[in-house]
Specification:
By secondary structure, this protein is mostly helical. The protein has a domain at about 1-85. It is built from twelve helices and six strands. The structure holds heme C (7 copies).
Amino acid sequence: MKVFFAALVLSSLLCIFLPPFAWAGDYADSAHGDTSIGVDRSTIDTDFSNYATGNCAHCHEQHASLGGTEPTPTGGPDDYLLFDVTSSNTFCNTCHDGSPVTGDVASQTTKTSGHDPATTKTPGNINAVCMDCHDPHAATEVAHVEATDGNTASGVLKNVAGVQATWSAPSNPSNGTETLSAPSYTATTAVTKEYELCLKCHSSYAWGATPPTGWTDQGKEFNPHNFSFHPVTESSAGQQWNNTFIRANQTAAMTGNWALPANLDARMYCSDCHADNTAGAPKGPHGSNAVYILRAVGPGTTYNNLCLLCHRPEAGAATSAFGNHTTAKHQYPSNALGCLGCHAGNIGVGGRTGNVHGTNYRWATSGQPAIKFLVGGYITTLTSNSCGAAKVTGCGGHPGGKGY
Ligand code: HEC
Ligand code: HEC
Ligand code: HEC
Ligand code: HEC
Ligand code: HEC
Ligand code: HEC
Ligand code: HEC
């Protein structure tokens, strides 16, 4: 009876009240609603060949049987007359596992690291399924282009809920300490920046003052008033990149779209770093066989291959103001920690995880702000990599350095 009633209500919604829906236009413009590339379950069950491509019925089953049998996939009925529940990924994965839709998102989520609700990795009380990050009635097929589109939420993320953040400057850290401050948050039903989606779960907004074990607070790290941060956020529109060397030598110091003059000062997606490590795989932080859903790692346990997707610190004309990037001893494998030996050293080398997002640390001895992610003072294990202790506790008199 309840099922019948639900069916009646939804059929009425689907048949009678469709035109007034605020999202009716959105649906017609969406990838799923598109009459040529949109939803089509006929490759899974031929009974659906009676429905036009893009028809709601490919997802919402208005009838318990079609052509005399329960349509594939069987089971249900489920909420909103869908052919499966949306509290897990199975509903979306019916089509997003490589067939009929090109691009296997389903298996991305079960890689070594990923947004996978089926595993027990979940810290705190949060979980992430497809529906947390996509609106099936609105998403378009237009994904973002790295650097060119900055941090602007793409059509793929259209109409997704998140949090808007307002940052203020953290208090001034005294020597040898770091101060970080959380922004204030306002919920939004439609993000305009990709990070507004991520911060819904990866900040104090989700879990209060104490991050789940192994996590740090990306809301604090990406404060655009910090001494260093990768340019995901901005304190006001048009904020310039922090690094004057990169700004002045952009075309030589950066790679790909980051080197295009039109993209100077461009902001980033979180998923410019967090995505599948397989070339050509669907975009987005669904999963990766590299740790932390990173687009690249290695050689060894370093993150160098990630950094080198965008930076050219060692390439001829691009050599940074710090000439010793080219010194063999500073390079892998002589320096087994790679870039993180000097920049953003993580927990494994005496620092905190997530330094590469942003830091607001002040050097102990010199009192200099640790700009450029130069948090070497945290790093306790560099001494075993033929770098003298005096050089790492401040990079003070480091040849070629600038006194940090
Ligand atoms: C790609 C699959 C898909 C297609 C196609 C689709 N929907 Fe949905 N629809 C969903 C999912 C998933 C939900 C559950 C939403 C939730 O859990 O918040 C839903 C929920 C709904 C709801 C109830 C909640 C709400 O969002 O208001 C209505 C009504 C609805 N859909 C109508 C439609 C109509 C009308 C169409 C065609 C114009 C359509 N849907 C096409 C997947 C789809
Ligand atoms: C009945 C098959 C079907 C189901 C079920 C389905 N999709 Fe899709 N989805 C498609 C098709 C077809 C496209 C358009 C593919 C293209 O762009 O060529 C699409 C496109 C998308 C896009 C736009 C990006 C892109 O590559 O085009 C997103 C995002 C998306 N789907 C997410 C979801 C989510 C989330 C769910 C579950 C709530 C879901 N889909 C369920 C068939 C489906
Ligand atoms: C609805 C909550 C939610 C949202 C939104 C969300 N995440 Fe997550 N994220 C999680 C959970 C929960 C995990 C742990 C893995 C799991 O159980 O799915 C995770 C894991 C991760 C990890 C791996 C962390 C580790 O320790 O290995 C990264 C990186 C990540 N998310 C980045 C992002 C990015 C980038 C976005 C925005 C595009 C985002 N997340 C949006 C909940 C969320
Ligand atoms: C410049 C590349 C880059 C960008 C941009 C980036 N990350 Fe990360 N992220 C990393 C790296 C590298 C690690 C591994 C950290 C470590 O070992 O210190 C990481 C770790 C993480 C982790 C797990 C560890 C932790 O401290 O919580 C989460 C969650 C995460 N990132 C989420 C995000 C979110 C959300 C965004 C955007 C707001 C983002 N990242 C932007 C490179 C990046
Ligand atoms: C997806 C592209 C991308 C990746 C990957 C990336 N960066 Fe960056 N990085 C940038 C951009 C863009 C800037 C310019 C930001 C600025 O100066 O404000 C930048 C700035 C920097 C700076 C200068 C920051 C400052 O405040 O002066 C350092 C140092 C740096 N990155 C190191 C790294 C390291 C180490 C890694 C690898 C763990 C890495 N980056 C990965 C894009 C990237
Ligand atoms: C934690 C948030 C998150 C979750 C969970 C998530 N996605 Fe995504 N997805 C994204 C982001 C971010 C992008 C990249 C958007 C862009 O680049 O503009 C994306 C991209 C996509 C695309 C387009 C890929 C391309 O190359 O154009 C599809 C299709 C898609 N997601 C489907 C799914 C499906 C199906 C699920 C569940 C199995 C899912 N997503 C789970 C955040 C998420
Ligand atoms: C031996 C320590 C060390 C290592 C290892 C190292 N860097 Fe640096 N890097 C520095 C110092 C110090 C500066 C600051 C130079 C200055 O201010 O003159 C710097 C500056 C930078 C800058 C900003 C450009 C500038 O001159 O301000 C980028 C980008 C950068 N490094 C990226 C990397 C990447 C990527 C790697 C790994 C491939 C790496 N670094 C490895 C010490 C190091």
